[in-house]
Amino acid sequence: MKYEDVMKLALERGFYFPSCEIYADAQAGFWEYGPSGVGLKNKFLELWRRELVRRDGMLEIDGSQIMSESVFEASGHLGNFTDPIIKCTNCKATFRADRTIAEISNIEIPESAELIEFDNAIKGNNIKCPKCKGNFENTKKFNMMFKVGIGPEEETAYLRPETCQSIFVDFPRLFKIMRGKLPLGIAQIGKSFRNEISPRQSLLRLREFYQAEIEVFCNPKKLNEMEKFLQIQNTILRIQTDDEPVTLTCKEAVESGVIPNKFVAYYLGILTEFYEKTGVDIKKSRFRKLGEKEKAFYAEVAFDFEIETTIGWLELVACNYRSDYDLSSHATKSKEKFEVMDNDEKVLPHVFEISMGIDRSLYTILEHSLREDKENERTVLSLKPYLSPIHVGILSLVKKDGLKEKTDEIYFQIKRKFDAFLDHSGAIGRRYRRLDEIGSPFAITVDHQTLEDDTITIRMRDSMEQKRMKISELSSILSEYTAFP
RNA sequence: GCGGAGUUAGUUUAGUCUGGUAUAACGUCAGCUUCCCAAGCUGAAGGCCGCGGGUUCAAAUCCCGCACUCCGCACCA
User: Fold this and answer.
1) CA A270, C1' B29: Å apart?
2) Which residue approaches B77 most closely, CA to C1'?
3) How many angstroms separate the CA of A198 from the C1' of B21?
4) What is the pTM of this model?
5) Which of A39, A75, A261, A323 has its CB surrounded by the most CB atoms within 10 Å?
6) A470/A473 Cα distance (integer angstroms)
7) Nearest nt to the A450 alpha carbon by C1'
8) A445-466: pLDDT as tens digits
9) Can you give the distance from the CA of residue A96 to the C1' of nucleotide B72 in angstroms?
10) What is the ipTM metric for this complex?
11) Residues A259-271: tens digit of each pLDDT
């Protein structure tokens, strides 16, 4: 289904909607999750914890969203997260200074250079606006971080533009107190903030967004000593390099050199297995190996995990080998020691990062799960049962003859254990359709036979089939059907 | 940020040219009916027509500004 269809579902069924929408001064790039969206998100994150954090024995933390200026001096964000921007005095169009200069004059100026260097290059080479041939204003810096003032003196701090800096800053303590051993994964779910120039497409380009990040700390000399690699060596990866896209197992990817080592391949493998379980169409996914110019300033090797949707390929996860960039920067800036013992060897760990965009992942799950069942005239959200905001609808066939009371009784029995939704109103078919649209995989219905023999029917969302079963079996059957894989 | 198109009920939308406070469908709620898949009947709720200003006796409608949404460009460390 298309973007517009997902948007309509999101607005009508409470998955997500614009923030502060009743006020005219609401800013772009901020969206809220409604009840259905929160249900889906919580379950998606639970799956992430199971398939990545718990599977690999990682540690999870929850850090501050506001962090001090020093953090971002060390991380490089104050220097590098800034784009040099030039604006045309005539048509007001804005361009990246370094790229515009490079395109027109072939002069390469690093984006972190002093502003005067860009101005000199523009004047010296008579560079004009590519659109209207107008003159440029002086180069300015545009920093994508939100600055905040702390306390009455408004001391400078920033909303984090990525969650992972907490992980680096906390690493020395965590390694000591949690009896860390390399390789060690540290994970975090939380919000990040970026002052995007033009937010677009609801959940896909936000100014305030959720990330689930993992930083795996490792000994750089041991990137091929990976016993766990056996678990995923036959897992199939789709990899896009500069040449043709290739489909190969993790083992083949390492042997052919497409992926540099077993360590990186292992994490790309478990990431793939995680996304398979979210119900997205994994055949429409790829790891795109980034070229030198595309990579982030801190990355040595980088793969973007991308999924094809109706509005193009979306980047869901950035996988970066960040080397010791972060730890050595923070070590220098803070004078804290970041070296740890790996058996008898003292090492400054390297870092491999798996930085997941949660909002984009949720959009993709919705788009890939939503379908029109023309034969039965219904819209169905075929979510995996363990990801559905509602596990089961509890319905009375009709309200009278005590069926309502019996239905209520069943609802009260199970509502703390499952996400159940009680509904008595309207035709039974309409209630089934409503549940189909929010992805509830099951509906149980109380009918007259229930009053005689304590049995109910359970209806399957995808097949619309029904089976009769005993009320006493309901809890254990639902547990089985809605369990995480 | 630039260019284009839009913004009317929960959703989709008519009305805007030609000024007189708004149309329909679906959805929602209540009742009747109904013994399993959006049926039917009766009734009801729901709109500062994106926001602000101007013109006018009178503005959803004309004019100006702004915001937001979508598309394209640029941007996406």
Assistant:
1) 48
2) A81
3) 36
4) 0.92
5) A75
6) 5
7) B35
8) 999 999 999 999 999 999 999 9
9) 19
10) 0.91
11) 999 999 999 999 9
A200 CA to B70 C1', in Å? 9
CA A415 to chain centre: 29
User: Chain B bases under 7 Å from protein CB?
Assistant: 1-2, 10-12, 27-31, 33-40, 50-51, 66-77
Nucleotide nearest to A376 (CA to C1'): B37
* Å: A1 CA to B23 C1': 30
Q: Which amino acid is at A131?
A: K
